[in-house]
Every structure is written in C-alpha cells, then in structure tokens.
Fold each of these.
Amino acid sequence: MKSEKITKLILIIASLVILLIFAGMAWAMIKGAYPAFQKFGFFGFLFSTEWNPTEGKEAYGAMPFIAGTVITSVLALIICFPLAFSTSLFIAEYFRKRRIAIILGTLVDLLAGVPSIVYGLWGFYTLRPLIASLGFQGQGYGIFTSGLILAIMIIPYATSISNEIITMVPNELKEAAYSLGATRLEVISSVIIPNSRSGLVAGYILALGRALGETMAVTMLIGNANIIPNGLFSPGNSMASVIANQFGEADGLKLSSLIAIGLLLFGVTAIVNAIGKIIIRKFA
Amino acid sequence: MKKLLAIVFVMSVFAAVAGNNQNTSTGNDSKSISISGAGATFPLPFYNQLIADYSTKTSMLVTYGGIGSGGGIRSLKDKVVDFGATDAFLTDAQAAEFSAPVVHIPTCLGAVVLAYNLPGVTSLKLKNDVLAKIFMGEITKWNDKLIKAENPEANLPDMSISIIYRSDGSGTTFIFSDFMSKISEKWSKEVGTGKTLKWPVGMGAKGNPGVAGTIKQTIGAFGYIGSEYAFAQKIPFVKLQNKAGNFIEPSVASVSAAAQGDIPADTRVMLTNSADPQAYPISAFTWIILYKEQSYNDRTLQQAEETVKFLSWVIDTDAQAVAQKVDYAPLPAKAVSLAKTILKSVTYKGTPIVK
C-alpha cells in the first residue's frame, strides 16, 4: 500500500514538472516577445515585411520568415507525398514481407534517424551544385532547394508512419475484396486508402510539423535573405533559421522580435497540428 | 519498488559525495583561478594562438568564446566574463547602458577583404563607386563595362554577381558597412552602418567561416570576410581604392599604414578609408573591453590582477609578434603606449592594479 502511494506521488511530481516547464516556457516567451508586439502591434509585426536592424531605422516584421517557412514546408510536403506514399505501398502491400521490402523498410527507418546537419552538408555540397548547374537564378540557394532537402528529410519519416498504418488495414477486408475479383489497384483505392485515410493524413501532418521546425539544413541552403521570396528559386529565410542566425548578437528590440518569431513558430506548429486533428476527426 | 528506491538512494549518496569533493578541492586550492572572455570572431584565430602561448608560459587558464562582438558586449554587461571583445567600439550611448565605466584596449589590426570566386581571374581591381554600385544591386553582371574598364586583362564572364553577406550580427559587417558609408552617400542614406543590415541584394551565410565557405563553393560569388579567412582558405580578393586613390592589396604593411594617423586617447576610432596613401582602406582595430573598476561581483584582487596581467602581456612585444604569424597586423607603437596608459587606469577598489 505504501509503495502504491509513493508511485502515485512520483507520477504526480513528474507530471507537475512537465506542466511547470511548459508554463515557464510560455511565460518566458510571451514576456520576451511583449516589447516587439507593443512597439509594432501584434498584426503589424505579423504582416510587416520589413526587417531592418540598422540603428535609427529599426523595424521588424515576421512575414518574410512566415512565408519562407510555410512555402518551403508545403513544397516539401507536395514533393514528399507521391514518393512516400508509393514507397509505403511497395513496402507494406505489394512486396510485403519479401526480402526486398524488409531491406527497404529498414533503410527507410535508418534514414529517418539521420541528423539534419548531415542532410544539410549533403545538400550544400551535392544537391545545391546540381541545381545550380541547371542554370536557375541564385546559384542553387533558395526556396526550391530548401523545399527539396526538407522533402528528402521527411520522406523516410512519412514512409515509416504510412507503412505502419497500411499494415494495420485488416487482412479480412482485403481478402474479401480479392475474392470478389478486385484487382490490386482496386483493393488499394477502395479498401486500403479509405481504411487508412485518417492515419495517413495524421502521418503527413506530423511530417509537415517536422519540416516547419527544421533549422540547420534549411539555413545552409535557403540563402538567408530576409525578404519575401519572389519565385521558386529566389533566396528567402525561415523562422527557425533567422532565430538560429541572429540571436547571438541580438539585444533589445531585435531580441524581442526574434523571441516573438519563436512564439509565432510555436503558434504555427500548434495550428498545423490542430488542423491535422480536425481532419482526422472528420474522416475517422 | 524497493529496488528502485535503493538505486535512487545510492545515486543521491554518490551525488552528495561528489559534490563535497568538489567543494573541498576548490577550498584547498585557492590559487586555481582562471580568466574568461567572450566576443568577436574576427580576431578569434589570433586570440586562440595567444591563449595557447600564455597558458604554456604561465599555466594560467584563459578561455575565450567566439560568440560575436554583440555577444561579447552583452556578456561583459551581464558580468559573466572577465573581459569582452568587440570589433565595433562602444558608442557613448552603449557605454551609458553599463553600470560602471568600461575601457577599451586595442589588441591588433585586421582587414576586411572582398573575396570572389571567378575561375581564371586571379587579380581584380575595383573603384569605390563600382564597389558601391555592386553592393547596391546596380551592377549585376561580372562583365559589366564599369568593372571591365579597370580590369582590361581579366577574362570576366557573363555571369551574375552573387553577393554573400553575414546572416548573423557581426563586427566584420560593422567595419565593412562603416567603410561603405564613407565612400558612398547613397549607401550611407539607404543602408547605413551596423552589425546587421537590411541588404539591397544578395544572400546570407553564418559567420566568417560560413561566408568564406559559401564563396568558395559558389562560382560568381562576391562577399566580405576577415582577411585571415581569405588567406587561410586561399580565396582571391580584390585590390581596393583608398582615399588617396591608390589600389591597395591587404597586407600587414598596408593595414599597419592605416593606423599611422591620429589615435584618440581612449583608442575609440574607426580606421576605415584612412588618408595614408599606402593604407588598405578597410582596416580596423579590434578591442578587448573590461570594467575600469575591477572590484565588482565579489571579484578577488587576485582575479583582477591576473586579468590585467594577461591583457598587459597581449599588448606587449611577445604577443604582438604572434599577430603577424596569424595574418593580423601588430599594434603601432603609438597605440601600444595608449593601451598601456589605459591599463594603468584600471583599478581595484580605487587603487591602480598596474604600478
């Protein structure tokens, strides 16, 4: 009985610590961001495209970074989806439990665990020169390359989750469909997809969440220009990347603005997750 | 459950014992003090070399964190380091934000070079107005006739100029933009001087190493870096026009020449666009900053003495000789004597530390 009580106590303390950390973080960020919001107004800060740290002309707005983050992440998702979905069908349905699928599945799981700086290095030294050689503007730095590297980073992640979901579709359903004379494609489109839709969407939302917060690989490839990108191959900057780049020297209003961007990134991630949950509930 | 508790208990005993050990060791050995500093990355290779030499010579432990000039200023303001380091001297307004007076000790001279990546082009000259036009985004191609006019022999390609700048706040950016503001009225009005700027064109990379690496990897790239990074990575750089109109290559001699003019008693001066006919135009002092009154935050006299002793050594002949080996220019005699006078004004509880 006594050990019961102790266990309970430990569990309560542990949960309280998590709550405290969360509250402390939220408090520190809101407090830190307050001067920026006070100076420019919440919506003024949100929608302003000016990022000018020169003394006397100081003005900060988050829009270039919100645009950079959202565009690269959505681009990544668009590139990632067909590849990840096909791969997971290959692994979890067409070649299920065959040696090639097992090897491929292990490889995908392995790739999902590679640290982002490694992707960044590969992107900087291999992928970027390749894109530069295609002759687009900006020597290979910019939105497109960042989106591409993000896609490559989240493909294993999305594939891994999709595999699990597709494997979970009950065999009875599939066998029933086959016994009625359905082709493989028909089984996929009318049994597997409808049964795993919400799980798949959740998987891609999680992948998008990873793309939104990714810092290192993006900062090495996006070009770090604090402007709203004017094309697919234009340089830009993302929210996580501008914070990583500029917090070291920042003070005063600039530091406050960077913290405010951090708060917004937190908000954007929360919204994306919320949308994911709504979609899941709608289709489930 | 009992097992778990036992483990927790054993671990906490270990932790307590370990903690005690630490306490007694610092208590017994009161001489084990160390000096810490943080700031600019521009002189980082120089400071690293100095600290290595100093610790073999005196067995005093000095640590230096290259976190950028702004970070160095903030660390000193927060009193978490013994000295800060910066490439941009404190303005009167910045100095007023400190709780006590701060003094500047110049440590060496450095140059900011304009490095480029153009295969087959080994020598390039740029006039001031052309340089300004490139960075304002008015000249976008390497084979622009204004660039060609000064470089008739160079085989300039029909290629876009990719401007690379520092994405993080930087003393190097401050020095470069200070020079640009002096040579171009338009730059001064539209962009200005600062550690980070609103750039008309181009893209950013993090830190001097980041910019150097990006230029090296990107054909057609053009950007500014601390000279030692260009020397070390063998990236070609431009001969710039100084105030007298001569095209000058950055070297120890041409950087030293920039410091031949008048230096104010507190050494707070920008040396860019020097009037000396042999001077390289983007030369600058880099400084170490510390509190004039060293008795703060329960600092011991010994701590203050060791800090000042280290800084006295930095501006003295032995350490200054190291500067050239790592591609910086040593302080001119005038600056050394000013720095010595400033160090003599540093006190502990009102008494000068150096007699």
Amino acid sequence: MNQVLIYSIISISSIGALAAVILYFVAQKFKVFEDPKIDEVADKLPGANCGGCGFAGCRNFAEAIVKAGNMDKLNCPVGGNALIKEISPILGIEAIEREAQIAVVRCNGSKIKAPKKVEYDGAATCTFSHNLFAGESGCPFGCLGLGDCVVSCKFDAIYIDDNTGLPVVSNEKCVACGACVKACPRSIIELRNKGKKDRRIFVSCINQEKGAPAKKNCDVACIGCGKCVKACDYEAIILKNNLAYIDYEKCKLCRKCVEECPTGAIIELNFPPRKEKSIKTETVNSEL
Amino acid sequence: MSLLTVSGSPHVHGDQSLKKIMWGVVLAMIPAMLVSFWYFGLPAIIITLTAVISCLIFEYLIQKYLLKEKTSITDGSAVITGVLLAFNVPSSLPLWQMVIGALVAIGIAKMSYGGLGKNPFNPALVGRVFLLISFPVDMTLWPLPKPIWSLVDAVTGPTSLGILKEGIGKGDTISQLASELPSLQNLFIGGVGGSLGEVSAAAIILGGLYMIFKKIISWHIPVSFIATVAIFTGIMWQVNPEHYINPMFHLLAGGLILGAIFMATDMVTSPMTYKGMILYGIGCGVLTVLIRLWGSYPEGVSFAILIMNAVVPLINKGFKPKRFGEVVK
Amino acid sequence: MKTFKIGGIHPEENKLASSKAIEMLEIPQKVCIPVTQHLGTPSTLVVEKGAFVKVGQLIAKSDAFICANVHSSVSGKVSKIETVTDTSGYKKTSVIIDVEGDEWESSIDRSSVVKKEIILSKEEIVAKIKDMGIVGLGGATFPTHVKLMVPQGKKAEVLIINGVECEPYLTSDHRVMLEKGAEMLVGITILMKGLGVEKAMIGIENNKSDAIQYLQSIASDFKGIEVHALKVKYPQGAEKQLIKALINREVPAGKLPIEVGCVVSNAGTAFAVYEAIQKNKPLFERVVTITGKSVKNPSNFMVRIGTSVNELIEKAGGLPEDTGKIISGGPMMGKALNSLETPVVKGTSGILIMTKKESKRVEIQNCIRCGKCITVCPMGLEPYLLAQVAENTNYEAAEKERIMDCIECGSCHYKCPSGRPLLDYLRIGKNKVGQNIRNRANN
C-alpha cells in the first residue's frame, strides 16, 4: 500500500515538473513584446468597457493611446480630465483639458404636451417602433419612450419618468459615454457640455417640420420662428430646417432665448429662479 | 371613439396558447392517472395530490418572494410537473419525501434557471432521480397493485424489470424466470407492480394519441424512442434469447412508454426540428437499453432522457431545418 | 392538389366580401395623391399649385429605372402641395386636388368592349406600362415594367400570375378575376408578349372555385395560359412559395424569381396592364376591399387613388363603435393605420377594420421552445433563434442564420403559443443586418 502511495507521488510530481519546464520554454519562445505602458494605462482606466471612447473596451483604448502617443482624438469620457491628467505622465505627453459633457434629451413632448393619438402595441423597443410608424403622439421626430437608451446605459444613469414618458438623465451618474446617443433611433439624445454648476440651455426639440404641423402634434415643439436667433447676442443659435440649435461652445447662458421662445421649446436647467417678471418656462426638475 | 392601436403585422393570432397546450397535456394524463388510482387506491390519490399541490405552492412562493415577478401558476406547467412526478414514484412513498421531490423539481430544476421555458432538464425527472438517489429503499419498494376495494394492506415487491435484472444477475436464464414475470397482456392493460404512471401502457398510449391529435406533440420523439428500444433489444434477443428477454417485454415493462410519450416530449427540453427530434429519440432509446441490459439500475428511461436533455442544445445547433432555396453544394 | 412544401399556416379565411360585386365608389370632394407610391426611386412633381388637371393627367414622374409615374385620379384644381401622413404616420409630399366634375383625358377609351387584339410591339408594351405608372397591386408596389426587362444572361420561361390572395379577409383580386376575367387574360397575354414568353400559369387557391371555373372555361381562347387550383395555405401568395407550388422550383436565397426563369405578377396588375395598353388608361383607380367582422356592409369598391380611407368606411356602413385597429391590407401582412385621413394608394388592396377585442395582442409569455415557429416558417428559418439574437443585438449571428431570407409573412408570430412578437424582433434584425450589408458593400 505504501509503495503505491510513493509511486503515485513520484510519478505525478515528475509529470508536473516536466510540464513546468516545457511550459517555461514555450512561453519564452512565443513571448510577444507588449509595451509595458499599455498595462499601466489600462490599470488606470475605469474598466467599464462602455465603448464611449469609440473602442470595444478599455484595453483597446489603452493600446490605441500608447500607440498614437498623443491625445488629439482620444478621450475617455468616463474618467474625464482627472484621468487624462493621471495617464499623461505615463505617456510622457501633455494632458489636454476638455470640458465635461453629459447626455441631453432633446424632446419635451411628454404625455401631457404631446398627447397620444394612437396606441402602440408590440415589441417594447424604440428601434422597431421607429421603423413601424411615426409614434403615438404623431410627431415623427419625438421620443418614443420605449427605453432603448435605458437598456444601452451601462451606468444606470437614465430612466423613463412614468409621468412624462420621457427619459431622464442623472447629473451624477452620466459619464457621457455616448451609448444612448447611438442607441436612440431618432438621434434625440446629444452630448453637450455639462456647463458651470450643471447649468445648461438647449432646444428640447428636433422637429424639422414647419410650425403648423409641428405644433399640431406637440405643444412644446420648436416651430422655427427664429425669435431666439434674434434675441441671442452671441450668435450662438442657428436656425436650420425649421429648427433652432444652440451651439454650446458659444452660449453664454444668458437665458434671453428662453424668455423669448413662444412655445417653451428652449429649456434651462439648474438655474436659480428668476426674480422679477413673469416666468414663461415652467420650472424643470433639476435632474432633467 | 377611443384611440386606434398601431402594431406590426400580423394582426391576428392562432388559437394555440400556452395554457391550452399545458392543460391539454394534463388532460392527456388523466386516463393513466385514473388507472393508477384504480390499482393503487387511496395512497395513489394522496401522493398525486401532494405532488401537484406542493409543486404549485413552491412555484407560487418562489415567483412571488424570490424572483418577485408575476406568478404564473395557472398556466398548468407546474401541474404537469406535479402529476409526472407522482407518476414516477411508488404509491408507498412517504409524503415528506414527495414534498422534497417537488421542491427539487420546481425549485432547482425549473426556477433556478429562470422559470418556464428556460430549464435544460425535465423538472419532474430531476425530482425523480433526486429521490431515487437519496431514498433508494423507499423509491424501489413497489406496492403490488390490488383492487381499490381491497381492505388488506398492500404487499410490496420488485418491479418486473427488477425481477429480471436480479435474476439475470444471479445467472438465471429467461425461461427459468418466466414464471415470476407478468404476462405481456397484463403489462399492457395494467395491474403490474411499478410506479404510479407505469401500470398501464394502454392508458398512456391513449393520452399520447390525444396529444398527437391535438398537435401538442409530434410523433417523432415517441416513435423513434420506442422503435429504437424495440430494434436494439430485438437484436440482442436474437443473439441470445436465454439471456436477453424479448423486445415486447422491454417495451411494455417499466417506464418506457410513459417516458417516451410524456417526458421525452417535453417541449422545453427536447429538440426543435423534426430531424433533431428523431436523433434525440434514438439517443434516448439506445441509452435506455444500455442501462437496462448492462447498467446497474434495472430501469434506465429517466437517466437516458436526462442525459439526452443535456445534448439538446447541441442538437439544436447541429440540426437546422431545411432552408428554402438553399444552394446545395 | 399543388401547394408549397415547407411550413405554412391556415388562418381563418373570413372572406366576408367574396360574393359582393365590385361597386364604383362616388368620386370624393377632394383627393390627396402621394407623389411616390411605389418601391424605388421617388418621383418628382410636374404640376404646380393652382393648375387644373384632368383625370389621367400625369402629375409626377421620374426617369430613374425603378420608378413609376403618378397620374391624377380626378379632374379639378390642385389646391395644395404639402406633406401628408401616409400609412405609417410619416409625412410624404402629396398633391391635394379639389374635385371639379369628372373630365377625363381624351385619349382614354372609356367603352367596356373587351379589346383582344394587341398591336404594340414588345418594347412599346414595356415603355407604355412604364408611362402608365403600373406597379404591382398585390401590396409591394414594385414597378411592373422593371419586371418585364429581363437582365442580361437570364431567360424568362414562364409568367406566373398570382391569383392566390392567401391573406384572410381580402377579396379584391377574387372579384377582379371573376368580373374582369376576360380583360385580365388579355392583360396576361400582353405581359407574356412584353416578357417574350410562351407560357403563363395562373395560381388560384381552391377557396375561389367560382373564379377557377370561370377562368378555366375562357382560358382556352388564349394561347399558353393555364389555370391551376392550389390548396389553401398561407403564405402561398408570396412569390417564392407560389413558384414552388406551381412549378416546383426553389428560388435561391437572396435571388429574384428570374433566376429560375419566372416572373410573377398579380392578377389585379394584369387587369391594370390591360386597361393601360388597350384603353390608354393610366393606373389611377383600383379595387379595394373594405371588410371586417364589425363592418355593416363588407364590400369591394373601385376607388380612385387618393380617396381618404374615411370615405370608404362611410360607404361601407360607417365606422363601427368598438373599432380598435384599422389595417391597410390583410391581417397577416397589412399595416395598421394611424389615422382615418390616410389616402388610398396604388398598394392598398383592402381596408380591414378590427374590433377592440380582435386587435388586442395576446399576453407575451416565456418561449417554451416548442418549435412551432420552425414548423410553420415557409422559408425554413428558426424564428425563435433569430428573434433571440436580434433582441440581444447579436446581428452577426442573425445574418449567419439567414435572417435576410425572412419574407415577413408573420406565420411564426401567428402560431407562437406564448404570443411572442417574433416578427417585430425579426424586423429589427433584418433592418440592422441590411444596414450592415450595405455598409460592407460601400466600403
């Protein structure tokens, strides 16, 4: 009995030793050189593999940034400026400061403002619904409210508000990875600068129809009247295809356009309430 | 007028529904159930009720409190599991063991995978095999059937396959064992020791024909399964009729008919294309015979089906339907 | 009896209007004619606001290959040119005409005499069909003249006429075959000449025995036309299934019928071709079935293109109280309408009104892997798998499992005991895979 024990210990150990030696030589022979910087950079990255940088995963981004040796077109929106500062010494290049961004839902056609005209009954995905018809409200540009963006978000930063039927982006959780922008079949969601103290002004509508048909489906549609363009002192607003668009790089957050808009399509976020005069825009949920 | 509905085509739906299918299966099991009540009396009724009710309760509790989803006990699938589980145990099984069997079947084999449609193995069979391995004595003590009105306590004894296995093991020949074995006629009509559902092949076949008629199951699995067993055992019988018993006995004794008609055909755990179904049936048949003739258990149907269940995803991948307009290379 | 082999279902037929003769619908006060009513390159407008148009006058055209002209269906003044919601609720440019009288273009022969003699040559026929704006009237609205131009290297052997009408409820083709049979056969002869084939086969499902008998009795006067009865089975009216049923040839995946020497055209289209060639009448009216279990008078109307669906419903006894859904086309492949203002277009074969109860989809439950979707799929696909990979956005797998072969017949969804919206997901998958394929082709 003892002999059996000893034999098995010896034979199994020697197989193990032999395998280790073979593995060592094979590993030496087939070793692939990899820049150690890649590992260093990859360690610093958030590791969410969200794809916000345009690459499949964080490691691919690390490889790309090490290979490129500069940051002109490469950015990790999740890590933001802090991360870029951290990894720039590893790469030996200067960090580029970028403004923080956030996803913004450019539709305010809620259940009340753009009431249902037909009822949708089918697969609960915006993609299918978008291909099938114009939407319950009849607006062919508006939010379908079936939550493709919610599904796409890896950070749990977006949810559908039951009262309005519209997606809401969380200020804290959103990392501006852009997954929802890609997921939305109607391109309603846009990445915009987060703004000072999270203050933002934007046109919450992408309807390119003329005033009358747009207004028919939705009370808060942009009708392309151009009043905001005239009101803006900084030439930040462009009117194209019956739709106003505020350039967030040029906007100085003066709020003149918000007051001017006859339909309330321009939304201001996280501003203190106005002191005097009538307030045309309703107060908006700070999380919107 | 209220709002119009918009949805993608098609705008009409056929008359089949999950509930209809599931309750159809339950209906098909009723003849076999009644036969078992007839032969095993009150204990059979109690054990069947215990199994069904505990399956329903476990499904309800798990869906409501663990998964926190909408409960779906009315769809009939838990009832099927309960009845099938009862079909697979002797009527003398202690009730607490039955409850544990139901918990394993519903809790482990079905709900832990996500509920109806997601389980890779047939829940009732998992429950049965669990019981067989955990309580081998209680699970193999078979009360001999007696008329329902008889007041004498049930006598227990081995199943016909058990007698055969033991006899062959001892080195007896078939002709020596013949007197101990039940006649083929009795095996077909009923009145032979075994688990509840196994007593009458005729009642089960009746249920099977109903299901095929109602298009709940297709003929492919039962036929290929049973035919494989018949051919395989037939060959062995030709080789040595004194060592291997005739194929008719193999067909009618034990749980083959029950397994082939009610358990191998479970939609969730069987292949989806006809070609795949036939291969699956053949696999079940071969494994059953291998276990019966050379394995250590007298009966192999449940093991065979469970093993083939594990192969189903592979079969689904390998056996695609014939595509329309496929270019043959 | 002939039919196709793989899959297929038997939905309730409900051909409520099959015994109702075609009635002329009154000309409406106003019509709204979409500028593009076919599959292919959009057409461009050739009339201006304020212009007076006659019945049959050209209002939109295009020189592109896959394109069809559009003609005015009424006489009157063009009051507006604006975007109007189409069947899907999206906006399309349309011409709105206020009707004044009923003045036809003088070239149109309005007599009802059946003109059998074909004077035009092969090329002239094709050119005239294009001018007259003929498109497939079965619903897909593919321009007919394109079908007649056989690509280089291919040879057409047989013309197949689709008189199957496998969709439940619809009866417009049935009535055309029964009432305009002789004209239709002349139309088929014209198409045969245009295509350069000697043989045509008409496939009709066996539930239209009166039409089969009638056509068989008069087909002997026409050379090379055979009438075949087919077993009732959906989707027999799908091009590939019909070819399989009639001549037992399988169109290879991703290819057109011409690959196996066939060209398929619809029965209603053949009638339209007759009118276009022999009577100089452009395609500006068509037979539309208005039906539904709750509809008072299910009927078949000859309707001018551009008439709003509302008018049809009024003529058929008004909109029932508990209407839940209005469908343009049949219940299996039709489109649910967003509004009653939607105009009838060239592809509108029927208007189906469903009650609230009928229009409600069944509750969605877990897939139980019963395999019924595989059994009924006429293309031999695995809808459960395709829907699953499409839902998980695994489009490469979907492409490998041949999602693009799907003909969107809806049999899988119809049969699914769990009521899963399989076709909804298949459509998403097809859409995305189609995009991927196009992207690859462009790169």
